[in-house]
């Protein structure tokens, strides 16, 4: 180092460097207020976060940074009073940029005193935490969605059980009682019993179908692949659309939560085919390797324009959410007239860990 080279050691140099540091910091609005709350200095960060140039804001009262409702309740002055009393205060809340948009700020106000202890102003450091807030809100919405999904799944399972066990049993008992009425040995046989028996059979079948639609017993008894086979057969029978199911590789013991999620995903995809696709063929391919499970559902229907989301449509969104919860990836491919294809890749580790859906 030559003797002429600038150093940080002299007090004057340190002061200048420190000012430079404060002025150039971009991520924090750092500025001084006079004792009455007028802006006295301004840095790059303040300009970036709040949108004012120094020449526009120096001399103005700092309450312009607060939303109108805060100004009306006197919050800016309360903060200065509190900082003057306590030496320093910290606050998180909405602040307003020059263009009127709001940002979520973390604000620290520190009171400044002269050598005699007289209040001369305040140092204010503001950070824009909007991204962090949005992230926290997103996480919160995702937690809530997982919770609602689990609650819905439990509710469906319990209604399905009640329908099957309680109503199903009662209908079976009713059928037996009616059958004894038609029994020639007991009393004069009644010819009009048969249609009633047939009607009860139809009701029993309906109850079973509704219960299975809510939660197919095969999912709990025989596992995911058997449940998808059941779904496919049911779809074929109901809509008369040709549907091929290809399962590659061995079935692994999937966890209950993952099985339910994948089952619901296929169910939603098939519901979409029935509702929107006007397809004549559907193909489902499931394959598991040592690390991943892949699932493809494609149809040859009318397709759709992806990208523009109808705010009332939650099917594809829900599929994405289920896959995300399992740590997987889902991709939708479609164009008008070119069918619709859904590709899902799920890490096997998430599929095997247990827990309820
Ligand atoms: N298999 C498909 N074929 C054609 N269009 C589809 C298909 N699946 C989804 N879509 C389109 O994507 C949109 C969003 O689907 P979704 O989120 O499930 O909502 P919803 O079924 O309630 O409309 C549908 O409205 C439809 O336009
Ligand atoms: Mg749908």
From TrEMBL:
Keyword field contains Zinc: no
Residue stretches in coiled coil: none
Pfam family, one: HATPase_c
Keyword Acyltransferase (UniProt): no
Domain Histidine kinase: residue ranges: 158-350
All copies of domain PAS, residue ranges: 14-69
Gene Ontology terms: cellular component: membrane
PROSITE patterns referenced in this protein's UniProt entry, alphabetically: HIS_KIN, PAC, PAS
Signal peptide start and end residues: none
Annotated keywords: ATP-binding, Kinase, Nucleotide-binding, Phosphoprotein, Transferase, Two-component regulatory system
MF annotations from Gene Ontology: ATP binding; phosphorelay sensor kinase activity; protein dimerization activity
Catalyses which reaction(s): ATP + protein L-histidine = ADP + protein N-phospho-L-histidine
InterPro entries, A to Z: HATPase_C_sf, HATPase_dom, His_kinase_dom, PAS, PAS-assoc_C, PAS-like_dom_sf, Sensor_HK_TwoCompSys, Sig_transdc_His_kin_sub3_dim/P
EC identifiers of the protein: 2.7.13.3
SUPFAM superfamilies per the UniProt record, alphabetical: ATPase domain of HSP90 chaperone/DNA topoisomerase II/histidine kinase, PYP-like sensor domain (PAS domain)
Enzyme class: transferase
Record domain PAC: where: 89-141
NCBIfam families reported in the protein's UniProt record: sensory_box
Official protein name in the record: histidine kinase
